[in-house]
Every structure is written in C-alpha cells, then in structure tokens.
Amino acid sequence: MTAPDRSILKRAAAVRAVGEVQDGMVIGLGTGSTSAFAIEELSRRVAAGLKIVGVPTSERTRLMAQQQGVPLLKPGDRPRLDLTIDGADQVERGSLDLVKGAGGALLGEKIVASASDRMIVIVDDSKIVERLGKATPLPVEIVSFGWRYTVDRLTALGLRPHLRLVDGKPFVSDAGNHIADCHIDEIADAAGLEAELSSLVGVVETGLFLGLASTVIVGRPDGIEVMQR
Ligand SMILES: O=C[C@H](O)[C@H](O)[C@H](O)COP(=O)(O)O
C-alpha cells in the first residue's frame, strides 16, 4: 500500500474547518503547513465575498495572509475572537490536549487561541496520539538572556532539553526568544508539567495547549473525523 499524501489530508481538514467561518467573524489564523491550507481557503472565500477579519499568530502567517488578500486586524485592536483555526504537532485522543510549536510560533498561537471563543485544530491522522509525549519534542520558549541557566533548570526537572538551532545559530522567535525542545517519554500529568514549567524563571511559554481545543478535525485516508471536547 502506498503512503497517503499528507498534504491532501491536511488540506481536507483545513477546508472543512473554514466551512465553519461566517460573515462578520474575527478569525485567529494559525501557523504551519496545515494552517497555510486554511489561509488559502479563507482567501478564496474572501475573494467570493466573505467578510471576516483575521488575527495572525505569527509574522510568517501575517505575510501569507496579506499576500493572499485576507483582511487583517489593525495593530492595537483587540476584540474577542470568534474562532481560531490552527494546526498541532500532537493531539491527545480523549482530552484533545495538544503539543504545538514545532514551527516556533507557540507564543503567538497560545495568546490568540486563549482570546478566542473556539479553537478548531486541523491535523492529518499522524498527529493523533493516545498520550502526549514522545511523538515529538515539547517546545518551551525561553528568554534568550541567560538561556543556559534556563536549560539547566529544564534538565533538573528530568526533561532532555536541546536548544533549537537554525543553521548552527539559536532559533529566534517572533518575540526574540529561544526555544528549548524537550524530549520526554510520556507526559503522565500534563497540567502538573505545565504548572512546573511555567513557574521556572526564564521560561516564557510552553507548547502544551491544555483545554484550548474545542474541536479537532482530522484528515484521514478514508475521510474526515471530527472530535469534540
Ligand atoms: O509553531 C508551529 C505550530 O504550532 C504549528 O501549528 C504546528 O507545528 C503544526 O504545523 P504543521 O501543520 O506544519 O504540521
């Protein structure tokens, strides 16, 4: 059997999610390859007359949306968002808790998702896990100043942090921070880990998105699966 084309599955999930968007909505625009399909579909609907305003979760998404003619919120405006559509690196079946941040946009994504009435997560079926943990590292955004101390604190918690590098240099997020990718076998207590990480000096935000996803739309080779919280 040939491997399914992940792009087709991601696009199918994205198109289904954008089907929920209605005139007048303020929409959070996620970051990553799956969200890019959602922006493309939103752009198509905007060209056909849909009236919405988008709130980008990253600089990359802002540029993409602008280029595709999706109207964006003016800097300084801060209405409540009706809906955010975003991808994920892991989705825990059952709780719908997430790991996000492989693309480095976790801080903007969490701020926007937390300001939204609903979050629809769009993924292909490779992202679904029984328990969050080892499928991908957990990204933790840390202040660049003194990052070695912060990495030591993460190590002391029993995590295996690796500073994310791009071309041999520390990755720099939109907010000017670094990211420690933490290798973990299985996250038995996600809320406990989130609380522990958030209390560490030097930690800005974690890629754990707990209780934020209202719906997960999964693109599968045999069709779409919709999971509700
Ligand atoms: O920082 C990046 C984001 O959390 C992405 O939403 C996540 O990594 C999923 O990206 P993709 O849709 O490309 O797999």
From TrEMBL:
One of its GO terms (biological process) is pentose-phosphate shunt, non-oxidative branch. SUPFAM superfamilies: D-ribose-5-phosphate isomerase (RpiA), lid domain, NagB/RpiA/CoA transferase-like. One of its GO terms (molecular function) is ribose-5-phosphate isomerase activity. CDD domains: RPI_A. The active site is at 109 (proton acceptor). Pathway: Carbohydrate degradation; pentose phosphate pathway; D-ribose 5-phosphate from D-ribulose 5-phosphate (non-oxidative stage): step 1/1. Keywords: Isomerase. It comes from the Bacteria. Its EC number is 5.3.1.6. It catalyses: aldehydo-D-ribose 5-phosphate = D-ribulose 5-phosphate. Pfam families: Rib_5-P_isom_A (PF06026). Catalyzes the reversible conversion of ribose-5-phosphate to ribulose 5-phosphate. This is Ribose-5-phosphate isomerase A. It comes from Enhydrobacter aerosaccus. The gene is rpiA.
